[in-house]
Amino acid sequence: MNEGGLAELRPNSLTAIFDISNTCNCRCLMCHFRLPKTRLQPVNFMLPGIFKTILSSLSPFLKRLTLSAASEPLTSPYFFEILKILRQFDEVPFTNILTNGILMDRRYADAIIDSNVSEVCFSVHGATKQIYEHIIQELALPNC
């Protein structure tokens, strides 16, 4: 502990979670994006320069970096630029992306493979087609 009572920052000691967007392409039954307060907020995306500045400061201390916790990262128009920046920080031991996968196509897959991403986690919404359609169906946006 240091003088202020906080633990000292050490290499590989932090987990950082970045929401690079504050929106999603779906309105699933169980998600906060179906709530009017969330749905009506202005859409924002983290700029690549801001991402790089923050990551530059944090990278020596990171053990894990996650792109997305509460939004859909593939909705960001800067997603590919952010992956290119992430590639520059190979000292981060583990990186992952959380996505619903609906927007995933070959272009996204290739960019993820070419980046430093260790893991991609897909939210499957349900174990059967019926459950999936029930959760997504009426609340999905037109592009889902």
Describe the protein's architecture and organization:
This protein has 144 residues and is α/β, with parallel strands linked by helices. The protein has a domain of 67 residues. The protein has a four-stranded parallel sheet, with no helix packed on it. Strand 2, helix 3 and strand 3 form a beta-alpha-beta unit. Helix 2 runs parallel beside helix 3 and helix 3 runs parallel beside helix 4. The longest helix has 11 residues. The protein starts with 13 loop residues before the first strand and ends in an 8-residue tail after the last helix.
Provide a count of the helices: 5
Query: Largest sheet at a glance?
Result: 4 strands, parallel
Q: pLDDT below 50 for ≥5 consecutive residues: which ranges? A: 138-144
- Let me know the number of strands: 4
Shape: globular
Task: Please write the string of helix (H) and strand (E) elements.
Answer: EHHEHEHEH
Distance separating the two termini: 49 Å
What fraction strand?
5-15%
Determine the structural class based on helices, strands and strand pairing.
alpha/beta
